[in-house]
Design brief:
Enzyme class: transferase
Distance between the termini: 8 Å
Number of helices: 13
Main location: mitochondrion
Order of helices and strands: HHEHEHEHEHEHEHEHEHHEHH
CATH topology of the largest domain: Rossmann fold
Mean pLDDT: 93
Domain Aspartate/ornithine carbamoyltransferase carbamoyl-P binding: 25-166
CATH class of the largest domain: Alpha Beta
Strand order of the largest sheet: 7-6-5-8-9
Largest sheet: 5 strands, parallel
Strand content: 5-15%
Subunit structure: Homotrimer.
Number of domains: 2
Number of strands: 9
CATH superfamily of the largest domain: Aspartate/ornithine carbamoyltransferase
Protein name: ornithine carbamoyltransferase
Radius of gyration: 19 Å
Structural class: alpha/beta
Length: 322
C-alpha cells in the first residue's frame, strides 16, 4: 500500500538502485525479494523514520486504509509496532486473536481470506504454521504479511538490518554471527544476509540445525553474491572475527515441554564478554526479544555494545514499509 503513494512525496535521500516493483505484493519470506528490493525497503524505512521522528512530519499516506492483524501467538513488539506504525501513517489497525476469529477452526482459511479481503486493505498474520500464510495468500485479493511463522520471521530481520545500517553506516562487508537455535529468525537471516553483502557465521547445537532446504538456498545465495557462509556447532568458531553477535530464545512458544532438554543441549551457547573476545573490537549484540539470561548475560545485554532496544524500536519503522 505504502509504495503506491510514497513516490508522490519529495525524497530526503537518494537511492542508487535498479527499478523495483513492490506494488500489491505479499511479504511471506525475504527469499522472494532480491537485493535491490530489500535495500529499497530499508531505505524507505529509514526515510520514514527521519521524516516522522526527527523532522516531525505528518504523513497520512494510509488514511482511510485498514490492516487486519491476526495473532495466533502473542507478541509485544509485533503488535505495538504494527498498531503504532500503521496509525502514524493515518491507517486503522484491527487486532484479531484466535478468540476473535474462526481461522481454520469454524471457518476455513479460504473463507477468512476472502472475507478479510473485502473488509481490509492488508493482513498481517502471526501464526504457528507457515502453511496458514500460504493458504491466506492463495485466496486473498489483498497483500498478506508474515508477522511470524514457524519457518520465517522476515519483519524482524528488516529491523535488525536497519539497526546495523544505522550503527555501522553500511551493511556490505559486515560479518554477522548467529549463536543459538536453527529457528525462523535464523532462516530469515539466511535468506537476506548475502543479498546485502553480509557474511554469515552460524553456530547451532547438533540436532538444532536450520532447515536443510534453507541451508542449500543460503549456500547458493552466498556463492552468487560472493559472501561467506559458515555452519558449525562451535560458538567460538562462529564468533571469531565477527562484527555482530546475535542470538534468540532457546525455547519458542509451543516448545515449553522441551525447556529442560533444550537448556541442557544449549550449554556453552550463552553469549558473554568472553564470546566477544574473539570478535572484532567494534562488535555489537542483537536479540529480537524477549530475552532470557541463559541466552545472554546481563553484562552484554545491558552494555553499550547491545543494540537490542534500538532494534526493538526499528520494528515500528520497518513494519511501515511491509
Amino acid at each position: 500500500l505504502l509504495f503506491n503513494l510514497y513516490n508522490d512525496i519529495p525524497t530526503l535521500f537518494t537511492l542508487a538502485l535498479g527499478p523495483v516493483n513492490l506494488k500489491g505484493r505479499s511479504f511471506l519470506t525475504l527469499k522472494d525479494f532480491n537485493s535491490d528490493e530489500i535495500k529499497h525497503l530499508l531505505w524507505v524505512a529509514g526515510d520514514l523514520k527521519h521524516r516522522i521522528k526527527h523532522e516531525k512530519q505528518y504523513l497520512p499516506l494510509l488514511q482511510g486504509k485498514s490492516i487486519a492483524m491476526i495473532f495466533e501467538k502473542r507478541s509485544t513488539r509485533t503488535r505495538m509496532s504494527t498498531e503504532t506504525g500503521f496509525s502514524l501513517l493515518g491507517g486503522h489497525p484491527c487486532f484479531l486473536t484466535s478468540q476473535d476469529i474462526h481461522l481454520g477452526v469454524n471457518e476455513s482459511s479460504t473463507d477468512t481470506a476472502r472475507v478479510l479481503s473485502g473488509l481490509s486493505d492488508i493482513v498481517l498474520a502471526r501464526v504457528y504454521s507457515h502453511t496458514t500464510l500460504e493458504e491466506l495468500v492463495k485466496d486473498a485479493s489483498i497483500p498478506i504479511i508474515n508477522g511470524l511463522s514457524d519457518l520465517y520471521h522476515p519483519i524482524q530481520i528488516l529491523a535488525d538490518f536497519l539497526t546495523l545500517q544505522e550503527h555501522y553506516g553500511s551493511l556490505s562487508g559486515l560479518t554477522v554471527s548467529w549463536i543459538g537455535d536453527g529457528n525462523n529468525v535464523l532462516h530469515s537471516f539466511m535468506m537476506t544476509a548475502a543479498k546485502l553483502g553480509v557474511h554469515l557465521r552460524v553456530a547451532t547445537p547438533k540436532g538444532y540445525d536450520p532447515d536443510s532446504s534453507i541451508i542449500q538456498e543460503a549456500q547458493r545465495l552466498s556463492k552468487q553474491h560472493g559472501t561467506q557462509f559458515l555452519l558449525t556447532s562451535d560458538p567460538v568458531e562462529a564468533a571469531r572475527g565477527s562484527n555482530v553477535l546475535v542470538t534468540d530464545t532457546w525455547v519458542s512458544m509451543g516448545q515449553e515441554e522441551e525447556k529442560k532438554q533444550r537448556i541442557k543441549d544449549f550449554l556453552g551457547y550463552q553469549i558473554t564478554m568472553q564470546t566477544g573476545s574473539v570478535a572484532k573490537p567494534d562488535w555489537t549484540f542483537l536479540h529480537c526479544l524477549p530475552r532470557k539470561q541463559e541466552e545472554v548475560d546481563d553484562q552484554v545485554f545491558y552494555s553499550p555494545r547491545s543494540l537490542v532496544f534500538p532494534e526493538a524500536e526499528n520494528r515500528k519503522w520497518t513494519i511501515m514499509v511491509n
